[in-house]
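Lab meeting minutes (informal)
Scribe: AK
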Amino acid sequence: MTQVSALINATHKDPSVVYRVGPETRVSEAVALMEEKNIGALLVMEGKVLLGIITERDITRKVAKYPSVNSGVIKVSAVMTANPETITPSTQLIDCMELMKEKGFRHVPVIDKGEVVGIVSMRDVLIALVRYQELVAQNLQDYITGSVYRG
């Protein structure tokens, strides 16, 4: 299929824009940022160092487990998934999908030469798959109807 780098370039207007928070950020602030940006995950970073990832799922599970948790007080570091698995821009999309399936991830940070360069979501992967299937279908239709030049 394709590499993750093509997916990042196709789905992110500016690949350098990766939404992040610090470990001391309150969960309520992280939720507000996710809502504002219409995203389901934030990277937790200290400077350029990736510490973890916080997702909608992390937050809902923590609140379900501890209903008295006050998201206005609790810090992201208490809820995040620390040391998340990562992929590189050269990771094949099929391998990214397999990792997501095996581990139950919906978001995977992309690291290049030790620096965060993006994040791939399950939605990004599904969009890429649909586009790929559309291309395959169009190529087959062109071949069957003879609309492709066979010089």
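Next up, CB showed the second protein from the same session:
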Amino acid sequence: MAHAEIAPPAPSTGLILSLTVRTSLEHTAEGKMFGVVMLTYPAPQFGEVDQDDVELKMRGVAASLGAAPYGGPVPTVGARIHMQGADAALWFKGCDFGLRLKHPRWASAAARLDEVLLVVGLAELSPGATRAEVDEYRVHLATNRDLYVARTQIAPPNAVHDCVAAALRRCL
């Protein structure tokens, strides 16, 4: 949490393009299904990254989604996911571009759900991480308050604000 006092920058187009997106469908203790979109910074195959830089960039991602540290109240941030058929896109506040969620089966299921949980990890994670490694990553970051979360809804196509719709048409 080296950068807690520094206002994080809005995510750049390059950062949005580089994010690793993991989607899943989960259930509450009461059996209610909800979607999950987890965004992580991809660990490089070769070489090292500056962890402070990764953390600052991912704080910017979390801030642009309205996410808060895991363990506290989970903010509801309004409709951030736009659906068009089996295509889904995630909108970041303060950015000119949305991120296409290239998971059509997840999008098809999520379109029928009330809520989606957005999860942002502040540390790098290999894009090829196994389910067990992802679970370990989440537990470790949640313990250190380096995991950010927010609730969002799926925006019906006719309810998307014009400027958001224009940004989403330029999805990466």
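CB comment: The helical segments are 13-18, 51-65, 104-110, 131-143, 162-169.
No objections, moving on.
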